[in-house]
Amino acid sequence: MKAQSKLYFYFAISTILLVIIAVWSLNTGVYDFGGKSAFEILGKVVKGDPNLSLSDKYVIWEVRAARIIMAVLIGSMLAVSGTSLQGLFKNPLATGESIGLTSGATLLAAIAIVLGGHFKQYLPEMVQFSLVGISAFLGALFAMMLVYRISTSGGKTNVVMMLLSGVAITSIGFSITGFLIYISKDEQLRDLTFWNMGSLAAATWTKNIVLIIVLIISYLVLLPKGKALNAMMLGEKDAQHLGINVETLKKQIVIVTSLMIGTCVAFSGTIGFVGLIVPYILRLLFKSDYTFILPLSAVCGSILLLIADTFSRSIVAPSELPIGILTSLIGGPIFIAILIKFKKSLQ
């Protein structure tokens, strides 16, 4: 009970911090509301004030509020997916980027953007509407299955093989994506640049609804897995002795993380290192206790991405710096720090 109370306390503190950052983000921007605060305008939008100008309503609701919610949702899902993969593979370097999921999602999304016009008309209307999103999900799933097959032998997953196969798949994926960029038209080239650098500028409430549905489904599966992932840290055989169905756990995490990463890539492009940074920081505070790390990563991922997005649209205002550049700038040094720590542990 004491541990549970401690979790609730940290979760509440993190949530309060997230709300404070969301308030700051809502009030940050180059648009002038005529001396009024962003919250006054938001209040009028909620109340349906007929005297509110269409430009004020559009900026506060369709641009800033929608973008803040998307940052919260995508940041949360990327962090939880990274945490889940690290628990599954028992390695702090296992993230969607390092094992090829992001590359696979980006590749199939790129194929849908550049070549989709040649076969889209033969698909059902519902599939046509979400072709890029479906492609990104399938790309992440195929990449995860391929990495898992290559790195697993005799029921045991070799972490070094997993990371090396992830590097190989990432290399292949980005090379094919590079070829697609070469043959793409101007409009397709702009879309592909968006995928590769990452951005939340295309946020809409329709996309947020899809993200919320994916998040709810995914979290119902993943968030209760804290104890199971703690058992996995002891080894697969010990986890089985403790009553954990290891193969079912692996399949659930593989499919759900592929769903989350594929959906995030479909809507925001490639935003790297969120799944690496957040679990690393939480692991410094709570060691490798996934009953703490897993739920807290859901909130802390939102905090990280919301801060990064707010800076990305204000550092070079009125232009926008791609958010993937900022997260990579933060994540690169942390990745090196993890490698140095791992090297010292080997000695």
General description of the model:
The chain is mostly helical. It has a single domain, classed as ABC transporter involved in vitamin B12 uptake, BtuC (Orthogonal Bundle), CATH 1.10.3470. The protein is 77% helix and 1% strand. The chain has a two-stranded antiparallel sheet with strand order 1-2. Helix 2 packs across helix 3, helix 4 runs parallel beside helix 7 and helix 6 runs antiparallel to helix 7.
Q: What's the arrangement of secondary structure elements?
A:
Elements (H helix, E strand, L loop, with lengths): L1 H25 L11 H10 L6 H36 L11 H19 L5 H5 L1 H21 E2 L2 E2 L1 H25 L2 H12 L7 H18 L3 H7 L3 H6 L4 H23 L5 H13 L3 H23 L10 H24 L1
Antiparallel strand pairs: 1-2
Helix pairs in contact: 1-14, 2-3, 3-9, 3-12, 3-13, 3-14, 4-6, 4-7, 4-8, 4-12, 6-7, 6-12, 9-12, 10-14, 13-14, 13-15
Output the keywords.
single chain, 347 residues, mainly alpha, ABC transporter involved in vitamin B12 uptake, BtuC
Mean pLDDT: 84
Number of strand elements: 2
- Total discrete domains: 1
CATH class reads: Mainly Alpha
Biggest sheet details = 2 strands, antiparallel
**Looking at this structure, what is the CATH superfamily?**
ABC transporter involved in vitamin B12 uptake, BtuC
User: Within the largest sheet, what's the order of strands?
Assistant: 1-2
InterPro entries: ABC_BtuC-like (IPR037294), ABC_transptr_permease_BtuC (IPR000522)
Membrane topology: Multi-pass membrane protein
GO biological process, one term: siderophore-iron import into cell
Transmembrane segments: 7-26, 68-89, 101-120, 126-148, 160-183, 203-223, 253-278, 290-311, 323-342
